[in-house]
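Incident review: delayed structure delivery

Summary: a single-chain prediction request sat in the queue longer than the usual turnaround. Root cause was a stuck worker, restarted by the on-call engineer. No data loss occurred. The affected request and its eventual output are reproduced below so the record is complete for anyone auditing the incident later.

Affected input:
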Amino acid sequence: MMILLYISVGFLIYTSFILGMNLIDFKCLKNTIVPDSSEKPKVSICIPARNEASVIERCVTSALKQNYPNFEVLVLDDQSTDGTGEILAKLSGIINNLIHIKGKEKPNDWLGKPGACHQLSKEASGEILIFIDADVWLDEDAIPKAVSELSYVDAITVWPEQILDSFWEKQVIPLIYFALYTLLPARYVEKEPKWLPAFLRNKLAPKFAAACGQFIAFNKNAYSKINGHESVKDQIIEDVELAKNIKKSGLVLKMLQGVDLVYCKMYASNNELWNGLRKNFFVGFGKNIVFFLLMSILHLIVFVAPFFTFFYGFQTNSVELLIWSSIAIILIFLQRASLNYCFKWDIYSSFTHAVGVLWFQALGIQCLTDHYAKKPVRWKGRKLN
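Output delivered after worker restart:
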């Protein structure tokens, strides 16, 4: 039992170090200074939309209210069946710089979102391409600040401020950001880890890659160099693959957090939450079952076991168990509370971090069951695998 606690505390100390670095290195987009310059490259804000009737107007109207003089908004209706197309037709009829595109039938070897983004890129006339999801909405200064960042790098990705309402949203969604902040040093996404030998640095550089497809932006030349979304046409997690392609091409990607500027509400119900993450979860591990199971066991040891060992120590009057369990529980709380504070989330969910971990364990079982039963994953009426 003590061995489990040593593993838990050791892992938490290590990830606390990465979290501390990321809280410093992860620049907030709202703090970006927009220079007073006469040069304003044209921006194309590209929005793929399939069955987004409940959110598309909010997304489009926020995109159209930018404090930037030279931009267009393109929205592709990806063969929606819920009235999304009718809403866009109405809006485009009264707004000049809104371009409504009716999506074409996707080829069999393409997935829906990469195909929609590819079509948007072909219609866009901007020097800068910014792709946002339909469930995202923007503050009026989001685009000028993004353009300013793109004057220094080839591409940026912004992690939005997630709006969390339901109990399960508060338990689950922050764990996506938690994994990012505690496992991937943001500085090595933008710059190569100089401490690695050169032969390893070139090989491992693409491994230090992540992106959030809810807001990802490119200078057009960089987008063309990696062959855009065509290079990820069959990828479910296309945003991460784009990030890897950027790094493989020797281009520079920067990650930013979007608190107070970029907002997102990913799912409208608990059922959507389950199915939305179900489509990505196993794929995120490269469908490597051994790695998937090892990470599952590790998370149970690190984030769940200390609560059981604490109560066992209390019952058996084991001071050693109580001390080490308490250290682990305090570190878990401090890590989660730091992230919740950063993204303006409910501080109370810091006390129930283990609940979210157990939710993902249940999701993992579902994903493995789907895999062995060869059950296809579907999203918005389309088969994904």
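Verification: The chain is about 50% helix and 15% strand.
Action items: add queue-age alerting; document worker restart procedure.
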